Amino acid sequence: NPDDYVRETKLDLQRVPRNYDPALHPFEVAREYTRALNATKLERVFAKPFLSSLDGHRDGVNCMAKHPKSLSTVLSGACDGEVKIWNLTRRQCIRTIQAHEGFVRGMCARFCGTSFFTVGDDKTVKQWKMESPEYGEEEEPIHTILGKTVYTGIDHHWKEPVFATCGHQVDIWDEQRTSPKCSLTWGFDSISSVKFNPIETYLLGSCASDRNIVLYDMRKSTPLKKVILNMRTNTLCWNPMEAFIFTAANEDYNLYTFDMRFLESPVMVHMDHVSAVLDVDYSPTGKEFVSASFDKSIRIFPVDKGHSREVYHTKRMQHVITVKWTSDNKYILCGSDEMNIRLWKANASEKLGVV
Q1: How far apart are the first and last CA of the chain?
Q2: Exposure pattern of 103-134 as b/e (b: 16+ CB <10 Å)?
Q3: Residue span of the signal peptide, if any (predicted)?
């Protein structure tokens, strides 16, 4: 009956129905809500994202590469020219190669996973077998290509025996030949990194030190488009799910996500780092990416948000130079200045069980 509830005038007191059953508490819902909230918060409070560090390098880790077929294998190259292959389940180095004189500038694995390529300061591109050499065999590259200038980066095509190097210009190489099948330039400055698009596999993106991001088409062997930013872009990474989207890691502490069809303005600017962003890598789902910065931390950003959902750092970690998101979407690897590769959970409060 509404007469029991509705006030006659607004000066009347509101009647509150009471349940006099002693077993029911009036604040049961509120208490339950608070408890649930605290439980979810505690999961975040006690999160332990750091799993382990892989040490063994004798100089800063400069670049890393994922094995395309094996989840537990990762390759890393250091500033003293050493390349190490790691087994992540055992957390051990399974093989060490003295690959170059000077820095290992870049490395990439072939799409079939049987071999990998490294480039270094000694102006060479070397192709190595993925398996360890047999007993008594020498540790030697399958191929060595001597170039005219220092190469600063390398990336392999996702389907064909073709790879691209960058340095003075972007060179497209056939694996069988010792001279590039085409060279692409736009402007005169050195190019710091080059990446093949995983979906539209004939597209490449590159970052030059005159603040440009240039897109190339391998079939036309010409540059397509260029976008000039205020400061230099260190590297870019293509979204593995959306063909046109890429994210660029910039010196001005931000990351810019662009749609390559509309380069006038970025789709999203991701802020939060407090120093230059040095590397970026997408998760295999294409929903998030991880960035490594000179400010000694790595951050995880959702693609459509301007701020990071997570920041990882340890007391010992120095400037993070390279970062990779593993292909099962569970872990993140970062290589830093003080010779360590660290393994993190992508979802910090995830329960792993027996590791």
Answers
A1: 62
A2: bbbbbbbbbeeebbbbbbbbbbbbbbebeeee
A3: none
Sheet containing 340-345, strands listed edge to edge, beginning at the edge strand earlier in sequence? 50-55, 340-345, 331-336, 320-325
- Whose structure tokens read 């690897």? 333
Q: Is the pLDDT of residue 18 over 80?
A: no
Which residues pair with residue 212 across a beta bridge? 228
Q: Is the pLDDT of residue 355 over 70?
A: no
Share of the chain above pLDDT 70, in %: 100
Token pair 């590397």 is at which residue?
279
**Which structure tokens are listed for 258?**
């662009």
CA distance 140 to 130: 12
Indicate whether this model's pTM tops 0.85.
Answer: yes
Which residue, among 343, 303, 338, has the nearest Cα to 323 in the 3D structure?
Answer: 343
Count Cβ atoms below 10 Å from residue 312 Cβ, excluding itself: 22
